[in-house]
Amino acid sequence: MKKQRGLTNYLLRRFLRFDREQPFIFLSAMLAFLGIMLGVMVLIIAMALMNGFDNEFKKKLTIMNYPLTIVPRFYGSVNSELLMRLEQEFPQLKFSPYVAASVIARSGSQLEGGYLFGVDFKAEREVNPVVAKGLETLPEGNFKVLVGEALLEAFALGEGDRLMYIFTQIEPGGLAVTPKLKRFVIAGSFDSGLSAYDKAYSYTDLHSLQTIMHLPDNVYDGIHIMTDDPQKVIEEVRSVLPEGVRIKGWWEDNVNFFAALELEKRSLFIVLMLIILIAAVNIISSLLMTVMNRRSEIALLISLGASPAQIKKLFLKLGVVIGIGGIATGAILGLSGVWVLQTFDIITLPKHVYPTARLALDLSWQDFVSILGGAFAIVVLSSWYPAKKASEVDVLTVLRNE
Fold it and tell me: Which of 6, 107, 164, 346 gives 20 to 30 Å between its CA and that of 396?
């Protein structure tokens, strides 16, 4: 057994050496090695980028859309009594009641649609870290408003300026109906990292907006909930809610968006895996050329007692060695590339377009194992056919002719 293993290793080293008489065989094997190496490296970095940006988008959407939200059904009501009951039953959670209104912000001739939220400043600071700093200095009452920095830049306004909000809810006046108009004093700003949210969301005192909307002090449009494990907590809270209200998670409002991201990630994985598949074609051609060039040696080995299974194993091992070498080198280079991009600010991104100004990378172990497993499977399948052809060499014909 040891002699057979030593012979196999000797032949492997011999077949992998550069042959001056047949340089194209070695060149084809080298191209296969380089192709698999580059494919694995690019796939690792691409998957890390996709995961990183997915996580960044999830963080931003979680912050601005809140992990969980309780809203009324068409016949229900969210009020202070429900809020007190939830705070008693779930003291580990943080709650923030709110009133929301669809508005159009106007400054001169410029208009920007969005939402104005009336919130309890103390409670909102606990559930929304993005606006927490601005709410600390925002005085309650007197129709003060906290707006996004993107809106301030678009309107060329600053703190202390007045900003008019046109409410989409209309009210009768004389012989016609007119929209509600109210000027607010800009008392602070926030920056979420996403300009779409900064332009669309504004925050004011809960009582101020309730007064404008003619709502009782104890009635809300909903309650935001902050938790680190929303998918577990949602079922616990749902079990104690009355029939007139319902609870929803932030992911339920963004199902299509994240489904598109997941589809894009899978498509990218398949496309980049084709690079490895193309490189594996070089393994097939290299092994087939080796088989054609070494037919006399193969026939001689079989005539000396080597079985077809051993010949098949030899060439299968030859292809696997080339492939594993490329996979291992590509994995090392890919992980090194991820580390370099995470550590050094080599590439910067426009902050107003992307959720982060630097590349976000996060390589999950599932993706890493999938890449290595998929590449190895392609290498084995590519090596099988040439190995099979090597084991089917006609000994008598080859020895008679060569």
Answer: 6
**Percent of the chain at pLDDT above 90?**
9
Calpha distance 375→61 (Å, rounded) = 35
In sequence order, what are the beta bridge partners of 170?
A: 179
**Contact partners, residue 162, CB within 8 Å, separation at least 6:** 183, 184, 185, 186
pLDDT in tens, 214-262: 888 888 999 999 888 888 888 889 888 888 899 988 888 777 777 887 8
Please list the residues that pair with 126 across neighbouring strands.
none
For 259, residues 6+ apart whose C-beta sits below 8 A from its C-beta are none
The per-residue pLDDT for range 152-190, each reduced to its tens digit, is 888 888 888 889 998 877 665 555 566 788 889 888 888
The sign of the torsion formed by the CA atoms of 78, 82, 83, 89 equals negative
Unique residue bearing structure tokens 């929301």: 100
Contact in structure between 245 and 222 (CB atoms under 8 Å):
no
pTM for the model: 0.66
Four-CA torsion 332, 333, 334, 335, nearest 10 degrees? 50
Pairing of strands 94-107, 78-79: unpaired
Cα(303)–Cα(225) distance, rounded to whole angstroms? 78
The answer to whether the CB of 290 falls within 8 A of the CB of 319 is no
Which conformational region is residue 202 in: left (phi greater than 0), alpha (psi within -120 to 50 degrees), or beta?
beta
Q: Distance from first CA to last CA of the chain, Å, rounded?
A: 30
